[in-house]
Specification:
Elements lengths: L2 E6 L4 H12 L4 E7 L4 H11 L3 E4 L4 H10 L6 E4 H9 L6 E4 L7 H9 L3 E4 L2 H17 L3 E4 L2 H9 L17 E8 L9 H5 L3 H4 L9 H9 L1 H13 L7 E5 L5 E7 L4 E5 L5 H9 L31 H11 L3 H17 L7 H12 L8 H23 L1
Parallel strand pairs: 1-2, 1-5, 2-3, 3-4, 5-6, 6-7, 8-9
Antiparallel strand pairs: 8-10, 10-11
Helix pairs in contact: 4-5, 5-6, 6-11, 6-14, 10-14, 11-13, 14-15, 14-16, 15-16
The structure holds NADPH dihydro-nicotinamide-adenine-dinucleotide phosphate and magnesium ion.
NADPH dihydro-nicotinamide-adenine-dinucleotide phosphate binds next to helix 1, helix 6 and helix 10.
Keywords: Isomerase, Isoprene biosynthesis, Magnesium, Manganese, Metal-binding, NADP, Oxidoreductase
Pathway: Isoprenoid biosynthesis; isopentenyl diphosphate biosynthesis via DXP pathway; isopentenyl diphosphate from 1-deoxy-D-xylulose 5-phosphate: step 1/6
Protein name: 1-deoxy-D-xylulose 5-phosphate reductoisomerase
């Protein structure tokens, strides 16, 4: 019987890559529900091709979507709306697998709903885990969800870890012979820029990643290295270790997707061409393997693998994220919220590129932390951080 899949954020870059794989394996997977936020025409095309049972959009887009469905004879697709609709499809009893590929904090509650419904959850939406870390991981254990990493680095680490390592309580110490995680970073498009040059980079330049094709927000995060900071926090939660056991390694070719070191001196790496279809296919089929269109690595072409230490003077976002993880509690949620506001302001040309980490740092200094004991508490901190970050942005832009 085929597995029925819900794709949260189907119109995005990860959503599209997911469809590509599902299309290759129609006997194994069917699309049950899809969600979109602004790209309604793209959603209609997807619905024409994949005929899901349910589509979710913001309530402001429902009439428009209904009209399109009528025009294309798609009236049998049910339309749900807003966060309640996202949660309903994420926990729907007919769904087996949920791809969590909404960008940012908007994905938190639907992702958590999927985890609490005990689904196999393919986690792309790293912001959800950064915000809710311990709560999300505890829910995965309590409700027997399979929370599998799609982020290429974490998927690589997952592949290199010993069997059974996953989803244990966060004690902080690596175990089962693991000594360290090496989290690779491409370094982004500005890896060789000086601080002065960084000050004048434009949103278009920041969104043009050398190795990966991604949504705008994560592209900017990759350029500031905040993406690696968020991934550091993501790794600590997924693999139940404290941040001192995670080393960030800049590896510009993005061929090694991350590594795990063991106490006997072994270092295991997962390699491949940079294409998100590989980690998505791995998480979908795990513990089996399924075919993708991604060509095997040709080491005679990719002959050179370089490594260097990250420069936290030019890219302070990484330092801020590590500090937030050390501080714990609400600090990662505050960091994430401030970053979302700062990136949006940069994309609107309201602040400069080097002001993004400044907004994050100032927000962290101004918003009170505390313990992340409940989702309500986390959402309140998220809101508080957003309003403080917005004030800082307005001040900088004036
Ligand atoms: P995109 O911007 O391409 O897609 C984001 C998706 O989320 C779209 O479907 C969008 O809908 C939807 N969305 C945006 N805002 C909201 C909202 N407020 N409520 C509901 N849905 C919303 O992003 P990516 O696909 O690149 O990234 C998705 C997630 O995956 C991010 O968390 C990112 O960090 C992570 N990720 C991405 C990788 C990549 O290679 N792209 C790699 C590793 C992780 P619409 O388009 O209709 O507006
Ligand atoms: Mg990544």
């Amino acid at each position: 019987m085929s597995q029925s899949v819900c794709i949260l954020g189907v119109t995005g870059s990860i959503g599209q890559s997911t469809l590509k794989i599902l299309q290759q394996h129609p006997e194994k997977y069917s699309v049950f529900a899809v969600t979109a936020h602004s790209r309604i025409l793209e959603l209609v095309e997807i619905c024409k091709q994949y005929r899901p049972k349910i589509a979710v959009v913001p309530s402001s887009k429902v009439d428009e979507l209904k009209q399109h469905f009528q025009n294309h004879n798609l009236n049998n697709i049910e339309i749900l709306s807003d966060e309640a609709g996202l949660i309903a499809v994420a926990e729907h009893p007919d769904v087996g697998v949920v791809m969590a590929a909404i960008v940012g904090a908007a994905g938190l509650l639907p992702t958590l709903a999927a985890v609490k419904a005990g689904k196999r959850v393919l986690l792309a939406n790293k912001e959800a885990l950064v915000m809710s870390g311990d709560i999300m991981m505890q829910a995965a254990r309590d409700y027997h969800a399979e929370l599998l990493p799609v982020d290429s680095e974490h998927n690589a680490i997952f592949q290199c870890l010993p069997e059974g390592y996953f989803q244990t309580e966060r004690t902080g110490q690596p175990k089962q012979g693991v000594s360290r995680i090496l989290l690779t970073a491409s370094g982004g498009p500005f890896i060789n820029h000086s601080l002065e040059q960084l000050q004048s980079v434009t949103p278009a330049q920041a969104c043009k990643h050398p190795n990966w094709s991604m949504g705008q927000k994560i592209s900017v995060d990759s350029a500031t290295l905040m993406n690696k900071g968020l991934e550091l926090i993501e790794a600590c939660h997924l693999f139940a270790i404290s941040e001192q056991f995670v080393t960030v390694v800049v590896h510009p070719q993005s061929i090694i997707h991350s590594m795990v070191q063991y106490v006997d001196g072994s270092t295991l790496a997962q390699m491949g061409n940079p294409d998100m279809c590989t980690p998505i296919a791995h998480a979908l089929a795990w513990p089996q393997r399924i075919q993708t269109h991604v060509p095997a690595l040709d080491l005679f072409i990719n002959q050179k693998l370089d490594f260097q230490e990250p420069d936290i003077t030019r890219f302070p976002a990484l330092k801020l994220a590590r500090q937030a993880m050390q501080n714990g509690g609400l600090a990662p949620a505050i960091l994430n919220a401030a970053n979302e506001i700062a990136v949006a302001a940069f994309l609107r040309n309201n602040i400069g590129f080097t002001e993004i980490p400044q907004v994050v740092e100032q927000t962290l200094n101004q918003v009170e932390g505390g313990s992340a004991e409940s989702i309500e508490r986390i959402l309140l901190a998220d809101q508080a951080a957003r309003s403080v970050a917005q004030q800082i942005v307005t001040h900088k832009g004036s």
